[in-house]
Amino acid sequence: MFAASKKLLNLRPQIRQCDRVVKIDGTSFGSITIDGKRYSHDVWVFTDGSIERRDRDHEFTLNELDLLLKGKPEVIIVGTGQYGCVRVDREAAELAVKQGVQVIDDITPNVIERYNEAVRARRRVAGAFHVTC
């Protein structure tokens, strides 16, 4: 029985030991709060839980997708800003589909819960979050 239970557990998506799970607490114009720390700039959240400054403009590009794909995510969340000014590049969206990666994009306040839901479901998730317009 134990062997069968162990085998079933291995079928679930697993977060690697080195991965740190982060929770996005909230956002307001010009900032995002992750694990209690406030960031006053756009951020990337990688599958290993690391957070870096996102120095991009109003487009989620193919280069940005390539950067996030390095962590082999199942899902990439794109927060398009408080009012939805960021657009996902068509080529980036097409490549994600080819790679079998789901891309969810919406205004940043809406996708925060989608990010947290994916983390709770133990999916490998990465994100790019625009915090102004």
Please give a structural write-up.
The chain starts with a helix and ends with a strand. The chain has helices spanning 2-11, 62-69, 90-98, 108-120, and strands at 24-28, 31-34, 37-39, 43-45, 51-53, 59-60, 75-80, 87-88, 102-106, 125-130. It has a single domain, classed as MTH938-like (Hypothetical Protein Mth938, Chain: A), CATH 3.40.1230.10. The protein has a five-stranded mixed sheet with strand order 5-4-10-7-9, sandwiched between helices. It contains four helices and ten strands. The relative contact order is 0.23. The model is unreliable at 1-18 (pLDDT under 50). The longest helix has 13 residues, at 108-120. Helix 2 runs parallel beside helix 3. It has 133 residues and is an alpha/beta fold. It is globular.
Quick take:
The protein is α/β, with parallel strands linked by helices. 30% of the residues lie in helices and 29% in strands. It has helices spanning 2-11, 62-69, 90-98, 108-120; strands spanning 24-28, 31-34, 37-39, 43-45, 51-53, 59-60, 75-80, 87-88, 102-106, 125-130.
